[in-house]
Amino acid sequence: MPELSRRRRFLVLAICCMSLLLVSLDITVLNVALPVMGQELGSGVSGMQWALDSYTLVLAALLMVAGSTADRLGRKRVFMTGLVVFSVGSLLCSLAPTLDALVAFRVVQAVGGSMLNPVAMSIITNTFTEPAERARAIGVWGAVVGLSMASGPLVGGLLVDAVGWRAVFWINLPVGLAALLLTLRFVPESRAPRARRFDPVGQVLVAVLFASLTYAIIEAPHAPATRVVPVAAVALAALLGLLWHEPRRREPLIDLRFFRSAPFSGATVIAVCAFAALSGFLFLSTLHLQQVRGLDPLHAGLWMLPMAVPTLLLAPLSGRIVGSRGPRVPLLVAGTAMAAAGVVFAGFPDAGDTTLVTGYALFGVGFGMVNAPITNTAVSGMPRAQAGVAAAVASTSRQLGATLGVAVIGAVLAHGVAASSQTHAQAVAAASRPAWWIVAACGLAVLAVGALTTGRRAEATAARTAARLSDEGRDEEQSEGHAGDMRANDAQADDVQVKA
User: Fold this and answer.
1) Over the stretch 62-97, which tens digit does the pLDDT of each residue have?
2) Is the pTM of this model over 0.85?
3) Are 381 and 330 in contact (CB under 8 A)?
4) Tell me, what's the pLDDT at 385?
5) At what angle do helices 45-73 and 387-419 cross, to 10 degrees?
6) Of the ranges 184-198, 206-220, 473-487, which one carries the lowest mean pLDDT score?
7) Are the C-beta atoms of residues 114 and 62 closer than 8 Å to each other?
8) What does each C-alpha distance from 57 to 218, 255, 400, 435 come to in angstroms?
9) ∠ CA 256-257-259, rounded to 5°
10) Distance in angstroms (rounded) separating the CA atoms of residues 456 and 365
11) Where would a tag sit more exposed on the chain, N or C end, judged by fewer CB atoms within 10 A?
């Protein structure tokens, strides 16, 4: 990709951030609409879980293949295709007559969404090649998550109150169209120097693993063991198959060599834990505000602002800190704040307004600090040719965490509500307490892993891994070049024989 002017680079960043706004806004807006949507479509807790997880599950399963496809076919082309499919899926969701139809149309949305964020991040990492400038760009990228959290609940509340839950999908249409036109005009096309081969077996194993694991977790509270245990066994078999198959591929879907880097492995684990905490936090907050406190969607959205505003303000600061001092400080702050927020809600289930605002603000601080170090740590130090794959693994980890957060926390909540003889509001309040402890545990995991996988020793493993990947990549290119020369020589010899 040709070198762009500074103004053009930040214009490309703004266009890529529009895709992130689409995906992130869709999640936060829908969370506020869940209770009303569930009531209209006649679904319980598990139905609301599937409305969220059908989207994040497909995203997680397809992100890596979308990243490698973009490297092969062209990032701009795949990005624009994703915008079209996502917008069409949003329109279909707004027309869904039943819960099953909504889940199916969310899958269409997710297919388009899988072509957006990892491809956009790959465009950004190939546009901003200077480390400090790239860290600042990633900080802006993280701030868009804060913007979606700040505006999503409020916009969602307004739309649900004024029009209905179907209107939350309409806002994707003008944003998607604007992003499509701007991409066509201003984003240059780019490809990886050498496109990765597809790994259909690995892709199928990943999809089976994620789908069966999520199904087993969501359905465990109310489905018979004879149905859940076989599905869990399928998930285990898919995992073992993946671990056996991937190292034997020259270009696997998931390059397990990346995990020799302690910072990369840490970023993957932190992404899963942080986004599990986020999705669980939003899910629990929505039910608490609307079903326990009895607020309407608009006022529930307003109550989430103390969480959203710190995320919006701190994400760019986190990016600057990562660029100047590394990821350690933001990760330690993030883990501490997220764990503290979980403890506040778990330890004080009947908290007053002040305690509630404090808990939301703490979580906003934590999530605002965590996003930039995840992305930067995942892609920094890796060869530029591998940036798309590394970014896709980081994005997959986020979506897998979001899927598992809703699945696990929703399962705990559903089990508690089903076993309670109290009123629905009292049952939800009581069942939420162990779920909040899970959020706190996720925050502690971010803190511990962040401390263990940053520092000089961890950076040394990243440098060794990057050097090994670069050396192996050169060896493969030389081998392929030598094979090509041999084929050319053979062809010339055959030609001489024919002439003779």
Assistant:
1) 877 887 788 788 888 999 999 999 999 999 999 999
2) no
3) no
4) 60
5) 170
6) 473-487
7) yes
8) 12, 20, 7, 21
9) 75
10) 26
11) C
**Which string of DSSP letters, residue by residue, matches 31-44?**
HHHHHHHHHHHT--
Question: Do 202 and 246 contact (CB within 8 A), yes or no?
Answer: yes
pLDDT digits (tens, 9 = 90+) for 19-65: 888 887 777 788 888 888 888 888 777 788 888 888 888 888 887 78
Burial class (CB in 10 A: 0-12, 13-18, 19+), 191: middle
Closest CA to 172 of 97, 113, 111, 115: 113
Phi/psi of residue 295, nearest 5 degrees: -80, 155
Amino acid at 29: V
Phi, psi of 164 (to 5 degrees): 135, 170
| Four-CA torsion 163, 169, 170, 171, nearest 10 degrees | 110
Tokens in use for 356?
A: 């509630």
Residue type (1 letter), 278: L
Q: Contact, 30 vs 286, CB < 8 A?
A: no
Q: Could you give the dihedral angle defined by the CA atoms of residues 73, 75, 76 and 78, in that order, rounded to the nearest 10 degrees? A: 60
Residue 30: half-sphere exposure toward Cβ, Cα within 13 Å: 26
Other Cβ atoms closer than 10 A to 10: 17
pLDDT at 330: 92
Cα distance between residue 331 and residue 457, in whole Å: 17
With contact defined as beta carbons under 8 Å apart, do 389 and 194 qualify? Answer: no
Per residue in 395-420, pLDDT (tens digit) is 788 888 888 888 899 888 888 887 77
Instruction: Identify whether the C-beta of residue 390 lies closer than 8 Å to the C-beta of residue 265.
Output: no
